[in-house]
Design brief:
By secondary structure, the chain is of the alpha/beta class. The protein folds into 4 domains: about 15-220, MFS general substrate transporter like domains (Growth Hormone, Chain: A, Up-down Bundle), CATH 1.20.1250.20; about 225-460, Growth Hormone, Chain: A (Up-down Bundle), CATH 1.20.1250.20; about 465-505, no CATH class; about 515-810, Rossmann fold (3-Layer(aba) Sandwich), CATH 3.40.50. Helix content is about 60%, strand content about 10%.
Length: about 800
């Protein structure tokens, strides 16, 4: 900001002695806002879906409200109103709306699910629901900074304080994201988190009212509502592009770092916190710099050019450096040690660019400020431009560009965009003509050459990194990546081992494979679901994976309809091409209907009921997967079962903690108390288990299963079972490992995973590098496996044979 462009008033609107207190208030505002954001996204995703489209709608609505608020307040509210009082009322309004949203969300969600569908109509309805709930409070949030901006002057010192307010808000956001992700939600639930944010809002509002009582305000000192000067438009475009590149890059880096660190809720909170920390450091530094810099425009332009290097650095670090750091992530078993390692890697990657993005906003304020300008409109306009750019960047990258051209090309486009915004600031213009000296032209030409080299240097995403993620340095050396693709919700890979074993990778790890133990588990899920119910014509499979479970379901000769709910659009084509022989070409089966949707949202919005439902979702530590293990979800599943219908679900014992497994089992048996556990063991030791439940308490008719497998039309099913070493119905049912009474001591005190707490994602997120499957299983069945008198029915001979098989398989009697 040039000194000649600003005419300080003789009567300042406020005493600068209160400014440090206002920074502290903005810290509180930012903390509350991020707590709300985490809570609202978690709750709304349970109702309108956890797909990328749903989350894109939520994010776009959230930031759209901020944009609207920042634009409208300085245009609708007169400068005569005391800024601190207005700010306090906005904070109180946010608190009231925060409470309202929490209690109104179930009602709105119920209305949504009764009308929701797929396609454009469903998308429009999701947008309406998100707008109804998120726009009012986010408009208030977006209005807070323009409101308080009228407390300062558009002088170099005053504008720098606006930068400090912005930095304080971001610093609070760091605190809020960490508090929500690491304490409020893991230890408590969304109700406690909501009222914590409400309490912060109320405290901030009361403090602002107290300060306002003792601080005089002179609205006459403020500038008039002048329109944006013609020469300022490049600053607004530049800060808009800066917001676009910031959120676009954050989407990509979060996605890639989740492969490296594990896609847990902790990883997302950590990456967000580091990103916000960089913004806070940068905004504070930019605010200090704006006081003394000769040309704020030049400084802003240099920031954008430096961002080209910082974004290229992050792209190189994630793809070519971090995956090869020589340590085994499974060695540190203490979550605190793992957090330290993850923090170092995240800071190393994300912090440089985020500092520069943070510095851009206060420098833009200084560059756009002019004599007689209303500071509220100045801040509101620039904040709106930055937020609008952020909406374009986040939605464009996540929903369009990464899927269309890949993350490598997307990052190259973001670097090019940042270079263009830098040129807007560095190329002097007068009368619409570019005015450059020879020396300036040579410098810019050299800078553009460096940018081109940076763009070319952006590496592609390695296939083995997508496949093995955090295990890059310890696993898969001999595996050949035969497919890698970046989809809407995840990056997917298929690898082949020297012996011909195929692996399906998602979330940076093997999710399904043709290894005998994995094939056994997948076939168990499918065949238990179809062989047991008396009526076995319609089925739902949640999670396609490699398609082996769905394939086992589809070959049931009585099946007339099989619905598959798969969240990632890439998966059906991939598994059809590479796993068709293993999954009986399930995707191309005419009785199969594949829905691209998350399983919970599909069940909420369909009126269809099924004879059997089987669920094989991603690991429970993957962010969002825990919603498929809650008490409310299992209640919903039960409602979608026909009389006598059955449900099965896979529960892994590896890469988990015992508390997480206990929560999964306890929550399932809370809804299906007469259900049972069937074990997929290796040499008698624990590996993973299948949980089984029924719509009612009707026992499993073992004779019915035997008769079905003896009939000619079940020949393909019999062969499928033999391929995984189940040679009879007794072999399959003999994997029984316990019911609720058998597990009572082990389950005592286990937390129940509910929608309001999603406890499982936090428990499982602490154990993604743990390998204690054997001890977990031994503890689970430590009281011995009692033959279940009420779970099975059949002829005396069949039940005796089954009892002997259970005794022999478990080896514990």
């Amino acid at each position: 900001m040039n000194e000649q462009n600003v005419s300080p008033t003789t009567t300042p609107p406020a005493s600068s002695r209160s400014f440090p207190l206002l920074v502290a208030l903005f810290v509180g505002s930012g903390a509350a806002a991020l707590i709300y954001e985490v809570v609202w996204f978690q709750l709304l995703s349970l109702w309108i879906g956890a797909s990328s489209v749903s989350l894109g709608v939520l994010l776009g609505t959230f930031m759209g409200g901020m944009c609207i608020g920042s634009l409208l307040l300085p245009r609708l509210v007169s400068p005569r109103h005391h800024p601190l009082k207005l700010y306090a009322y906005l904070e109180l309004g946010i608190a009231v709306l925060g409470i309202f949203i929490y209690f109104a969300m179930p009602l709105v969600g119920t209305v949504y699910t009764s009308w929701a569908g797929t396609g454009l109509t469903g998308l429009a309805l999701r947008s309406i629901v998100a707008a109804m709930l998120l726009l009012p409070p986010t408009i208030f949030m977006g209005a807070t900074l323009p409101a308080i901006a009228r407390w300062v002057e558009t002088t170099p010192k005053g504008v720098s304080w606006l930068g400090y307010f912005y930095g304080g808000n971001i610093a609070g956001a760091v605190v809020g994201s960490l508090a929500a992700g690491y304490y409020l939600l893991p230890r408590h639930d969304v109700l406690v988190a909501t009222f914590a944010a409400v309490g912060i809002n109320v405290a901030v509002a009361l403090a602002a009212l107290v300060i306002a009582r003792f601080a005089a305000y002179s609205p006459a000192a403020l500038g008039s509502a002048k329109p944006i000067e013609v020469g300022s438009w490049p600053v607004y475009v530049t800060i808009g592009i800066s917001g676009m590149t910031a959120l676009g890059a954050q989407v990509i880096w979060t996605r890639h770092l989740s492969l490296l660190l594990g896609a847990t809720v902790y990883t997302f909170a950590l990456v967000l916190a580091v990103f916000l920390l960089g913004l806070g450091i940068g905004s504070s530094s930019g605010a200090a710099l704006s006081r003394s810099v000769r040309s704020a425009r030049t400084a802003l332009g240099l920031c954008q050019l430096l961002l080209c290097g910082a974004m290229a650095w992050a792209a190189y670090t994630i793809a070519e450096s971090l995956p090869y750091w020589p340590f085994d992530v499974t060695l540190p078993t203490d979550p605190w040690i793992s957090l330290q390692i993850d923090l170092v890697r995240t800071v190393w990657t994300v912090l440089p660019a985020s500092v520069l993005w943070g510095a851009s906003f206060p420098l833009a304020l200084a560059a756009a400020a002019s004599r007689g300008q209303d500071p509220g409109r100045l801040v509101g306009g620039l904040y709106a431009a930055n937020t609008l750019g952020a909406i374009v960047g986040s939605l464009g990258s996540s929903l369009i560009l990464v899927v269309w051209i890949g993350s490598q090309s997307t990052q190259q486009l973001l670097i090019a965009a940042s270079a263009v915004s830098g040129l807007l600031m560095l190329v002097p213009m007068g009368g619409g003509e570019v005015r450059l000296s020879t020396q300036q032209a040579l410098r810019l030409a050299a800078a553009m050459l460096i940018v081109v080299l940076l763009i070319v240097s952006v590496p592609g995403l390695p296939g083995k990194f997508v496949a093995f993620g955090r295990f890059m340095t310890t696993r898969g050396f001999e595996n050949e990546v035969i497919y890698m693709g970046e989809g809407l919700t995840a990056s997917v890979a298929v690898t082949e081992e020297p012996g011909g074993i195929l692996n399906y990778h998602n979330a940076g790890k093997v999710q399904a494979s043709s290894w005998p133990q994995d094939m056994r588990l997948q076939r168990m899920l499918g065949h238990l679901t179809t062989l047991i119910p008396e009526n076995n014509e319609s089925f739902l499979v949640i999670g396609l994976g490699a398609g082996v479970t769905a394939g086992a379901v589809s070959i049931n000769p009585n099946a007339e309809r099989v619905v598959i709910a798969e969240i990632e659009p890439l998966v059906p084509g991939v598994v059809s091409e590479y796993f068709g022989q293993l999954n009986y070409d399930v995707v191309d089966n005419p009785i199969v209907d594949v829905h691209i949707d998350d399983g919970r949202h599909f069940l909420l919005t369909t009126g269809e009921t099924f004879d059997g439902i089987t669920s094989d979702p991603l690991d429970p530590w993957v962010k969002g997967a825990a919603a498929l293990y809650t008490e409310e979800f299992w209640t919903l599943v039960k409602e979608r079962l026909n009389p006598g219908g059955v449900v099965t679900v896979f529960v892994q014992l590896y890469e988990s903690t015992e508390d997480a497994v206990r929560t999964e089992v306890a929550t399932f048996l809370e809804v299906f108390p007469d259900g049972g556990v069937f074990a997929n063991t290796i040499s008698g030791q624990g590996y993973d288990v299948v949980l089984f439940g029924r719509k009612d308490d009707t026992p499993i008719d073992a004779d019915l299963v035997i008769d079905r497998l003896a009939s000619p039309e079940y020949a393909q099913v019999v062969n499928s079972l033999r391929e995984v070493q189940f040679y009879s119905a007794i072999d399959l049912l003999g994997t029984f490992a316990g019911q609720k009474p058998d597990l009572a001591a082990w389950l005592d005190g286990a937390p129940i995973n509910r929608d309001r707490n999603l406890r499982l994602q936090y428990l499982a997120g602490q154990g993604l590098n743990y390998y204690f499957a054997e001890s977990i299983f031994n503890n689970m069945v430590s009281s011995g496996v009692r033959y279940p008198d009420t779970l099975f029915t059949g002829s005396p001979e069949t039940l005796l044979e089954l009892e002997a098989a259970i005794r022999q398989r478990q080896g514990r009697w």
